[in-house]
Amino acid sequence: MRLPFFFIVLIYLWPDLTTSQDTSLGQESQPELLQQLLQQLQQTSPQTIDQEILNAAGPEAFNSDVSDPIHQEFKIQGDIVFKYGELAGALQPEPAVHGGLVRKKRKTPQDLTKMWPNAEVLIAFDSRASFSPEERSLFQSALEQWQRKTCVRFRTPTINDIHQGRSFIFVQDGKGCSSPLGMNPMRETGIFKYQPLTLARPCRTRRIMMHEVGHSLGLIHEQSRSDRDSSVNVMWQNVPVHMRHNFQKFTEQVTNNRNTPYDYESLMHYGPNAFTTNGAPTLRTLDASYQDRIGGFQEISRYDAMAISNMYNCGARMQPFIPPWWHRLLGRKKK
Ligand SMILES: [Zn+2]
């Protein structure tokens, strides 16, 4: 990252370094050039992650809670799957959502996010799903990104794991792109306990894969955090009534925000026009410089990674690498 930036600064300064006498040239165009180059550095995509998921899932996916009565499951916010009844009390009641009426909580909110024991995630492909070798390797690289930035580790379940009752993620074909939140073995077939990670063919991009795995590890959408109102405003007037539930915040007990600041650059953040029907923005960032950038980031952000490390209590493993000779040096000094 530093090297390209250095070159860009160099390119920007080049006329000054080489033709210092020519002060009239490009005084207005240089800041524009720098701005353009800086924009290229921001790693944003023209399509936001919610648009990408929506396009992959089809228009009905975001219309309302999508229910699957066979499995007693439903989907909220376009791509998070819950069992019936699981969400009761987990979302904050908001007058804008309920037409001025606030529903009474029926259940004490609790931390819904179940973590994978020892930060070890078991994951397998459904052999019936038609994933090409390229798609499998793309998925592998999405997992590697989470492994590289956090302490979470992925592996294929063994028959012993199954006999021990351990649950796993089952990567499958299906409608849209979706995942449950954290470890949630919502399905059972014989001795197999598993949770679906659904990737229809158009969902098989690296960014969507990393985003859905983010949910499987326990991350909610950034704009649903309990503290989001100090960073983004929901423009309720641009959200049709039947879509407003998608902007309900989770309660603090559910998410506790993982001791990280609100992160506009999160891979879990939707774009400024998510769930709009009139084309007008539904999210307004209080930091205006992010208005057109939220939802467009391509990589797992620093705070996405930190949230997972805090969740899995493995911040210590995220310390900078210290070479072994340094310990030997310290040991000698002690003596
Ligand atoms: Zn999502």
TrEMBL record:
Residues holding Zn(2+): H211, H215, H221
GO biological process terms held by the UniProt record: proteolysis
Active-site feature positions: E212
CDD domains listed in its UniProt record: ZnMc_astacin_like
Keyword Metal-binding in record: yes
Requisite cofactors: Zn(2+)
Residue span, Peptidase M12A domain: 106-315
Cofactor binding, note field: Binds 1 zinc ion per subunit.
Superkingdom per UniProt: Eukaryota
Entry EC no(s): 3.4.24.-
Pfam families (UniProt xref): Astacin (PF01400)
Stretch forming the signal peptide: 1-20
GO molecular function: metalloendopeptidase activity; zinc ion binding
Keywords: Hydrolase, Metal-binding, Metalloprotease, Protease, Signal, Zinc
PANTHER family registered for this protein in UniProt: DISCOIDIN, CUB, EGF, LAMININ , AND ZINC METALLOPROTEASE DOMAIN CONTAINING (PTHR10127), METALLOENDOPEPTIDASE (PTHR10127:SF780)
Name of the protein described by the UniProt record: Metalloendopeptidase
